[in-house]
Every structure is written in structure tokens, then in C-alpha cells.
Amino acid sequence: MAPRTATCTHATTSLLPNLTLSSSTSTDLTPAMAAEDDCTAAPEGGITISPVKVQKLPHLTNDLPNLKTFPNPLDRNQYYHPSDGFYISPSDVILRQITYDLSGTFPTPPPHLAYHRAGPRKQIFFDPSITSVAIVTCGGLCPGLNTVIRELVVGLWELYGIRQIYGIIAGYRGFYSFEPMALNPKLVEDWHKRGGSVLETSRGGFDLEMIVNAIRDREFNQVYVIGGDGTMRGAVEIFNEIRRRKLNVSIAGIPKTVDNDVGIIDRSFGFQTAVEMAQQAISAAHVEAESAVNGIGLVKLMGRSTGHIALYATLSSRDVDCCLIPENEFYLEGKGGLFEFLENRLEHNGHVVLVVAEGAGQDMIPRTDAQKKQTDESGNLVFLDVGRWLKSELKSWWDKDHPGELITIKYIDPTYMIRAVPANATDNLYCTLLAHSAIHGVMAGYTGFVSGPINGNYGYIPVAEVAEAKNPVNTMNHKWAWVRSVTNQPDFVKR
Asked: For the whole model, what pTM was predicted?
């Protein structure tokens, strides 16, 4: 098979936010695309980028080759008028990387990864009249959870005519501990206006054998798992066990993490709502700080391992004097330290707004031996409150270096306010697209995948890949430099 390539001109190579590869020739689920050179001149003076490696996407027929196919009900849906190009083919893919250096200065990179595009397929592998669906939410709360549930129910019901749709109560443990909740469009009609999860959620409770037994015994054919990286790792185990047992069950993940720490996809749902709400807390801290003598407004935002919320909220508000994130170490005392910077700011402005992500500075906070071993139900190390610790350290520093002088420190932790709000308009739309993308993929027989946007296009990513992918803030790129230019904070590198 001749190698497939994406051709683009010199002028536009780095300006293609929606670059996709498309071929009229069908390919199998694991196409191998290769060529000798990464970038070669095209006859018309353009640039040919190759090779491209399409990530393998699991399909039910890999283990159950004799499954029956059915025409897509969208052919008969009164709201759709399928035409040429409406249905996605296996050869429609999305590039993971869309910017390239064509100078030849750097070594040839490995094959460019691509993922199958999301969307409806011409044939489906489930008979809607007998298909039974389970939807489960796991982990902490996040704006948009109820919207995803609602859109899964409405999409399955209205697009594909599925009537047996059930919500699993209280996370993974709900498969074997509670009766599922029957769902329909009327019941979920206004769920998108509500925060939290109507299905309830929890951490832990993962018992692989009992979960898969429940899926088998209740005759679920499709399982939609909504959760973060830990939940996705559980979904990988469920997917593998279902394959081992050769059950006709499709597993789809919808990544949920308000911290935006899931890799590969452009962003996770709820993130934009969280940034919007975080700005309100920052504004309140700014008012408190500038209304006091030597006022310090201290805001702790979500972000265990990544500081995306703190970063974007800082850039959006422009009231922040210093932003501390897990990816960037800092120190308190000495030249170039936090205390020196804050003292200069107080001297010149009379007030300071300090934003800190919850995972920042955790190795600086004293812990007892018991605290060093304490984990939550998901197995994560329990973090100490960096905001309260910083407040205490700031007060001690000021009392030592400025005895008798006034200082006011107002500490705001909006974590549970942010987690509990309904999704904003942008996240609501995003949740709908995530849900419908997942439905189309499952109905087409794909399994063990996650739906999400890649460079602005929705695609299907193997869930095992998403479960391990991280999305840290790159402190070497332009965005972090922008933060430092807005705040004028030091780099906290000891010299």
C-alpha cells in the first residue's frame, strides 16, 4: 500500500488548527503509514509530511468477528439528511501534532501520530431495540457532569432509538451495591442546569470481578464511564476483562477532570467553568487586599499535579501578583524568594494578590510520619492545605521582619464552590459534543476508547493511552512566560 501523506504549503504549515488527513480509500483499523523522509518537497512546491502512524482503535469484531451489522438509524432520522461525506470512514484521521519545523535543523521526529475521527458511521453493530446501556460517574465533582449524563441519554434515545438506559449510582461500587436508575429524556430534561452529579459519585469501590459480573448479569451492552485518570485506569481493566471473557460489551470513557490534567485532548470538560469561577475568588481577594493596610489576598485553586486553573485564571484576571503552581518550585526566604518579592510589591502597591494551586509547595510543608502515608480512597496522597500553611508562614515572616506593623491576610479557598456549580455555556456545548461523539463510536462497534477534541477535531483515543497521558504546564513555553510578564514574579531559581 502506498504511503498516505498530508501536503501543505510553506506559508500555512504552522497555521492549520483543524488539519486532518482524509482518504477515499478504505483502510483497516491499524493502518501503518511510512515513508523514508519526514518532510520532502512536493512537485508543486509544497511540503509533504510523512510518515503518519494511526493509533490502533479496538473494535468488538477483533474478538467477536461474526457480529451482525445494522443500517444506521440516522438514515431515517427526520432531523438528519445524510449525504456524501456525512458518515466517517476508517481512513478519516486527525493529526496529534499540527506544527512542524521544516528547516531541517532538528533530527527527524518519529512517525506522526494520528487518531480516528469521531462521528457517525454508515453501519452500526448494536440493535437499538435490544441494546442496554449503563452510565457511571466516578471521582470528585466537576461542572458539566450532569450535562454529559443528560446528553448521553438524549443522544442514545433520539439519535439511535435506544430505550434501555440506566444510571449507575455512586461510582464503580454502584455496579454491585445499588439498583441502577432507569433514565429517559423527560427525567434528565433539566439536569444540565444543576451542579454535581444526580447519579451521585464516589472514589474507590473498584472491584473488577464484581463490576464485570454485574455488567454481564444485567446484560449491559454499552458502558459509558465518566471520570479522571484513576477512573480511566479502572476502565482499562474493565475493558481488558470484558475482552478476556469475550463479552459483547463496548466500553467508552469520557475524561472528567476539572484540573485539565488529562493528556492528548485539548481540554477536559468543566475546566473553562472552573477558570471563570476562580476569577470571582481572585476579584474578591483583590478587593480585600487593596482595602487594607499591607493587605494580602491569598487564593488557593484546584490543581493537584498541574496548575492550569491557576495559570488561566491569573492570565484572565490581571489582578494577580504571583502565581504558584506544582510544576514550578519556589522558595520563601532569601534573595529572589517569595518573601522578598512580596515585600517589594507591598512597598510599591500597598497590597498583593497571591494565587497558589493546591499541589504547589507540598514538599515544603512539614508532615508527620502518619501524614506521609495517608491516602484517599483512590490511592492518592492526601495533600495538606498549602493555603493555610502559606498564610501561617506569611504571618510569621511579617511579625519577625516588621514587628508592630499592620498586615492583613485574607485566605479564600473556593474549591467546593467551583466544583459544585453548573457548567457554563461553553462547557455545556462541549459536554454535548463529547457525549454524542462517544455514542457514535460505541454504536460503530469501537470499544476501549475515549472521545475528545484533538486540535479542534473530535477523535477516538485508546483509553489505555489516555489513562497514562499527563498534561503538565510547560514552564518553558510562551504561556508561562506570559504569566511571569503579567505578574512580574521571579523565576524562583536560586543563583
From this structure: 0.87
